[in-house]
Amino acid sequence: MHTAGDVRVEDRDDPKIIEPTDAVVKLTATCICGSDLWPYRGIEPADHTLMGHEYVGVVEEVGSAVKTVKPGDFVVGSFVISDNTCEICRAGFQSKCVHAEFVHAGIGTQAEKARIPLADGTLVATPGQPDPELIPALLAASDVLGTGWYAAVAAEAGPGKTVAVVGDGAVGLMAVLAAEQLGAERIIAMSRHPERQKLARYYGATDIVEERGEEGVAKIKELTNGLGAHSVIEAVGTQESFMQAVGATRGGGHLGYVGVNYDVTVPGIELFFAGIHTLGGPAPVRRFLPELIQLIWDRRIDPGKVFDLTLPLEQAPEGYKAMDERRATKVLLTL
Ligand SMILES: [Zn+2]
User: Fold this and answer.
1) Cβ 232 vs Cβ 251: under 8 Å
2) What are the φ and ψ backbone dihedral angles of 85, each rounded to 5 degrees?
3) Domain boundaries defined on the chain
4) Which of 98, 116, 237, 271 is most buried, taking the most CB atoms under 10 A from its CB?
5) Distance 179 CA to ligand 1 centre (A)
């Protein structure tokens, strides 16, 4: 991304092994993330920035210290590099690893190949070579599925719980899928888009709420005997959506927030009187990858449906435009 709004596909040198813990992956597919729109819209700086942090592909070469993946393996990687051995990783927060590094900051997987540092701690090999129809689902695991799953776990979605999901983008839809898999009794998707409502229902939503802001909160309370939802997932990151999520959470309930929330200010006193648990941040996707890969491999979940536009990598600029103009929820780039 040369500058905001200016995405170009250009030739770069092939990545090479630098550290013994590196792997070079020949990418099979990659995609454009909602968070890539932040620099695209000028909210984050962009200056000849390498883009992309979601990826699946075949390992081409590994450094001498890499033990868990080998050339020829098909791998799914997290959007945060992690060693998966430090104290923070072992506690399940690989996105906060002491060696954490964001893939979008300096690696860039909207590319034909990528050098992935700390390959053992970042990549997970699939049980074999996947059928082509599994590729979108495995790619979703790299970020949006892992993030939606983390949000549902952070919100303690589970049996007997009513879960409200604020946001009907790819992550919100994946959070609905996760809540359903985790056994939630009732899943309320907050959405105004007929197509996304349909997908939310496909993934397990039992109710749809179209109202937003205070009206949205009132509607959630109405559906939950005035109490609010046990578990609320915030997957947007705006002031309105965040406060809607806080307001929709019942006293003692859990809020999982994964929308990147640049300009959100949470009034301390509202959080104080809400009396809720909160957990969010960049998802430790690596924690969930082995389980998610297996669910996809066994065809028990089908997260690949979140991609509603597929383009060749050369047309990445059009993919950004389509997402920016909301003509697409999520764009898959083929290689
Ligand atoms: Zn670590």
Assistant:
1) no
2) -130, -20
3) 23-143+284-334, 148-280
4) 116
5) 27
